[in-house]
Design a protein that fits this description.
globular; six-stranded mixed sheet; about 120 residues; alpha+beta; single chain
Length: about 120
């Protein structure tokens, strides 16, 4: 029985990680919504301290350390660390539209449909 549980654990873990893979990042009013397969995560943009565009070069493989995440280098999501950006939670669906949003208690790397909305309001 224990061997069966140990054998099944990696598969359960992978399925659990895939459940939180980002599908879409949208801005609705003052709210950023990150849709995953199992839920929609909501972040209040009025609590933002700032935002900055992020290029592929800023987070390329070798500069960024995966702390607890998946999807690298395709569509990274989870917790990562970078010398320039610090520790951040990533939900990237499009490498061309990445924005780092700074909240009082966390940093969030997302790729919304229109990152210009965030950057125009809250650029650092």
């Amino acid at each position: 029985m224990l061997i069966a549980i140990l054998f099944a654990f990696p598969f359960i873990f992978v399925i659990g990680m895939l459940a939180f893979a980002p599908r879409e990042c949208t801005i609705v009013g003052n709210e950023l919504r990150v849709k995953t397969f199992v839920c929609t995560l909501k972040y209040d943009l009025t609590e933002m301290r700032g935002a900055m565009p992020v290029s592929q070069e800023d987070i390329r493989f070798g500069k960024t350390i995966r702390l607890f995440g998946a999807g690298w280098p395709l569509k990274p999501y989870g917790y990562f660390s970078n010398a320039k950006l610090g520790r951040f939670l990533a939900f990237v669906t499009d490498w061309q539209k990445m924005v780092l949003i700074v909240f009082p208690d966390k940093r969030l790397l997302v790729s919304p449909e229109n990152p210009k909305i965030i950057l125009d309001r809250f650029a650092v």
